[in-house]
Amino acid sequence: MGKDVLDDRYGRMFEMPLELSRSGIKVNCFSLSYRTRGYFHENITGGLEWVSADFNLSHSSGIFSLVKEILEWVKICKPVAFIATSDIIHLAIGQYVSQKANIPLISDLYDNFESYGMSKLPFMNFIYRNALKKSSVVTCVSKPLSEYVIKYCSSDCQIEVIENAVDHAVFKPLSRQESRTKLSLPEGEILIGTAGALSENRDIGVLYSAYKIVLAKNPEVHLVLAGRSSDKVPIPEHHNVHYLGELEHRSVADFYNALDLAIVPLTDSIFGKYCYPQKACEILACRRPLVASSVGVMTDMLKDYTECLFDDGDAEMLAERILDQLNDPVVPDIAIHGWVDQSVKMKKLVEAIR
Question: Is 353 exposed, middle or buried (0-12, 13-18, 19+ CB in 10 A)?
Answer without folding.
Answer: middle
